[in-house]
Amino acid sequence: MPTPSVVIVTGASPRIGLSAAEHLLARGHTVYGAARRVEKMAPIEAKGGTMLALDVTDNDSMTAAVEAVLEAGGRIDALVHNAGYGSYGAVEDVDLEEGRRQFDVDVFGLARLAVASRWLLPDRVFDAFLRSRMGLS
Fold first, then answer.
1. Fewest C-beta atoms under 10 Å: which of 21, 52, 73, 98?
2. Which stretch of DSSP H or E encloses residue 96?
3. What CA–CA distance (Å, rounded) separates 63 from 75?
4. Into how many domains does the chain fold?
5. pLDDT tens-place string over residues 41-83
6. Would you say residue 72 lies in a domain?
7. Buried b (16+ CB within 10 A) or exposed e, 75-104
8. Are 59 and 112 in contact (CB under 8 A)?
9. Beta pairing class for 78-81 and 126-129
């Protein structure tokens, strides 16, 4: 039997992120669910995963989460970046500050995760990005 992968799933509190974490747990992987709203990740913990408080707009939060996983799991094999949200409307109708906030979460959040984990044996790390909010999968 192959060694279970150590996986971080961001945006693991609602819908797709939670489902991805549960799917990975059901297949025997070691899962660290990460989100701002830790209380919404109780199903992950109930199924044997670990909950991490993580705000993808905060470099210190991102670094602390990666370090916590490395300390507990010894490595990170996969990153599933699902953190994000949608602001809807015509570009001229969306407040510029709201657009910046969404870009910070949806685009730079992904970049922060990549930067925080880039030194983790890059030949072994597999990045999987679930970006349903931006129309990508």
1. 98
2. helix 96-103
3. 14
4. 1
5. 899 999 999 999 999 999 899 889 999 999 998 888 888 888 8
6. yes
7. ebbbbbbbbbeeeeeeeeeeeeeeeeebee
8. yes
9. parallel
